[in-house]
Amino acid sequence: MNAAMSGPTSSNHPGLAAWVAEMAAHCRPARIHWCDGSAEERTGLLAVAQAAGVLEPLDPVRRPGCWYHRSNPGDVARVEECTWICTPTADEAGPTNRWADPDETRRRLLGWLAGSMAGRTLYVVPYLMGPPGSPLARVGIELTDSVYVALSMGIMTRMGRIALDALGDDGRFNRGLHGMLDLDPAKRAIAHFPQDDAIISTGSNYGGNVLLGKKCLALRLGSWAGRREGWMAEHMLIVAITDPAGRRSHVAAAFPSACGKTNLAMLTPPARMPGWKVETIGDDIAWLRPGPDGRLWAINPENGYFGVAPGTSPATNPVAMATIARDTIFTNTGRTADGDVWWEGLGPAPVGLTDWRGRPWRPGGEPCAHPNSRFAAPMANNPMLAAAAHDPAGVPIDAIIVGGRRADTYPLVIEARDWTHGTYLASVMGSETTAAAAGVVGRVRRDPMAMLPFCGYHMGDYWDHWLATGARLTRPPRIFHVNWFRKDAAGAWLWPGFGENLRVLAWILARCQGRVDAEASPLGLRPMTGGIPLDGLGLAPERLALAQRLDRDEWRSELLDQAAWYDRIGRVPAALRTELRKATTAIG
Ligand code: OXD
Ligand code: MN
What we know:
It is a single chain. With 588 residues, this protein is of the alpha/beta class. Helices cover 28% and strands 22% of the residues. The strands form 7 sheets. Strands 1, 2, 5, 6, 7, 8, 9, 10, 11 and 12 form a 10-stranded mixed beta sheet that branches. Strands 16-14-15-25-29-26 form a 6-stranded mixed beta sheet, sandwiched between helices. Helix 2 (39-51) packs antiparallel against helix 5 (147-156) and helix 11 (419-427) packs across helix 16 (574-587). The protein starts with a strand and ends with a helix. Manganese (II) ion binds at residues 235, 257, 284.
């Protein structure tokens, strides 16, 4: 029996029409809906999701246009152990990825998907990553049997007709196939096929596993495409910062998942730093290419924010709070009795809360919101969105910042001596694990460039690509390493973080503009005394000195661990081994 069709039905692209027909014949849905991305379509899909119990409307006055979703309790985070890179050889995927044979994996996953959509709707979701007309923009088509995925892709990407128009009648597109398979954990797999520009995702309905434009296309396959085509796909936020003198700069920053990228991307300058302005370009992913002027130019391929809810509040991120005030899908947060959402860190808990599993919640027990609960909100809601977020050319990057969540060892800020030294600092980055991925939380692991779960090929080759790209830049960004998370011996934070991070950014930008000196240290360049503006902060200079401290014992064990990490990667560019040797000699 043929599936019933709805939506703009098909496109004039023969390859696309044939592939959709082939996949539909295989998965056997009852209906096929081609998404056009219109407001009317969204209203209809929301009604479908509500009728199916997938989404509940939130209070139309407190959260206009907002919806609530509870995932399956066993499907709440990215699953790295079920994420596969399917290249012809295991060597291409490298030692940090899980490799699987492409033919065997395709056969197995398609076997699971055969007939799996009986009685269901197959949504054909065309989406565009990047502003229309950008030389880096790419089209993906996600076939999914999840209305939650179709609606979330409508927030996170430029979805529907706009993507089909960009594709035209013969353009290239990424083929993504997602089937929920009753969320069976035994059939959970996120498989990437770089040689075919294809993705198959099964057995999950959680964000990073199933919103295929984000981690799968924009990073894992994006990193492959970048290497082939001479650009970089990175797990980085992008911001525009204007200082009181009117100087505008652009910063890209790589931090591991749930380490504050969204907060930095939406930073509100502290009251004691008048005249500063921060505008968001992206909060999670940057695609960067060398421009004809020898600078590195960045676009944000996304169109929305999939942010971690717990900890987000009017005090920590007022811009995010304004962004999620409407038209947002909340997943696995707590729910108030009067139709709003709540999570730890938002303020006093109202009475009558229901937790993320749907149980009545009382203080003192398990968290009300899952630690990885999320909001999916349109980029257009952001009151501090930079107009440049839509610029097909992107923005020229002045500084790249990298950093992890480290309670010890790493100072608040250091500057790399040059691009090669910065690539070394980024390649050995470590961070405590967070709830963004399934598994133990709080264990330090190396997360180079915050790309450990997202680099789609051999990590050593990826570092080589960084070095090769740097060599093409006549005006490369300066590279900095920051650690907002250092603690004192009593376990208290040494640096206040959040909006006050602008003080560190002020130093970074002054360095980029050649306006302040730095002093050499065994780890790189660091601020001179008084270099980071502390006025009005009330932070004792000794606390800053502790945050900046270099402890040789901590560094001796850190450098041994870095050496072991390089040995694990094996194919490490010689220039990076030289940097590690220099650091080891300098620490003594
Ligand atoms: C994300 C992640 O969702 O990094 O952005 O996990
Ligand atoms: Mn991320």
